[in-house]
Amino acid sequence: MPFSSTSDIRDEQLNPSTLHQLHEQGEHYRYALEAAGVGTWDWNMLRQTIHWDGLCQELFGFPNESTVTYTEVIRHIHPDDHVLLRQAIRAAIQSPHNRTCDVQFRTIIDGKQRWLDGKGKAYFDEENRLYRFAGIVRDVTEEVYTRHILQDNASIFTSITQAVPVALWMSDQQGYTTYTSKKWADWTGRDLDSHLGLGWLDAIVMEDREQAARVFQGDFQARRPHRSEFRIKHLDGSIRWVDCSGNPHYDSNGIFKGYVGAVLDITDRVITQQKLEISQDHFYNLIWQAPFAIGLYVTEDIRIEMANDALLRMWSKDSSVIGKKLGDALPELKGQPFEAILKEVYRTGIPYETQEERAELYDGDRLRPYWFKFTYKPLKNERGEVWSILHMAVDITERVLARQKIADAEANLRLAIDTAELGTWHLDLRDRTLSLSDRISDWLGMEPVSNLESILLRIHRKDLEHVGTSLNRAIEAGYSEPCNEEFTIVHRTTGQQRIVHAQARTLMDEDGVAYALTGTAQDITNQKLVKQELERLVQQRTEALRLSNLELEHSNENLRQFAFVASHDLQEPLRKIQSFITLLYNSDAKQLSSKGVSTLDRIHASASRMSTLISDLLVFSSLTQKEIPMTEVSLSKLVGEVLEDLEESIRQANVQLDVGPLPIVWGNASQLKQLLQNFLTNALKFGASDRINHIRISGSEAAEEAPETFNGFVRRYHWIEISDSGIGFEPTYQDRIFQMFQRLHSKEKYEGTGIGLAVCRKVAENHQGSITVSSIPDQGTTFRVNLPATPPLPMS
Question: Reduced to 3 states, what is the DSSP secondary structure of residue 69?
Answer without folding.
Answer: strand
